[in-house]
User: Fold CGNR zinc finger domain-containing protein from Streptomyces erythrogriseus.
Amino acid sequence: MGAAPQAPRTRVTARARDLRFDAGSLSLNLVATVGRRPVGPVERMGDAERLAAWCSGVGLTPAPGYEAEALLRSLHALRDAAYDIASSLLDGHRPSPASVDLVNGLAARETPAVRLELTPAGVRPAPGGDLLAEDALLSVVARDLIGLVSDASRRERLTMCASAVCRMLYLNPASGRARQWCSMRRCGNNAKAAAHRRRRAATAEG
Assistant:
């Protein structure tokens, strides 16, 4: 990628550290665990508590006994590779071979097959079928990224928030109007408020 754009300096608030689950795909939700990338990165998933909250938010359940620090390191590495690859679809840079190799290697690992069981009350998912060992959890995320890159319609919907501070990657909805902001409640309202302040200042100066 070329030189990183210069974003205005802003305070790192508690809201800036909030986990985001609205990027439109599992792998992009992982990328969104770093805010304000690439100029002033804000870590949103830096400890075991945040890791558990993220897994819960995206519907992934690590198997009991997992090592949080090890899983965090692996997810952070996958996150960097996913950002490298996904952002290349927007700015045309060539992703690192290491990023591609990491995603391919993780995606090749087997995930457990989901199972059903028959009970007196009827059929239901077998208990524990959603529990994922570390390799399986990483594989699910890597496969999601490959699915995004492989799907022309999803690639076309990939965009970057227009906020110079945010720059979050997300998928626009498949139907309806494309969004300029990752969230109207967040960056959209901030942009409207800033524009309003500029107009008032210009009027006052006039």
Q: What stands out?
A: The CA atoms of residues 8 and 165 lie 7 Å apart. DSSP finds seven helices and eight strands in the chain.
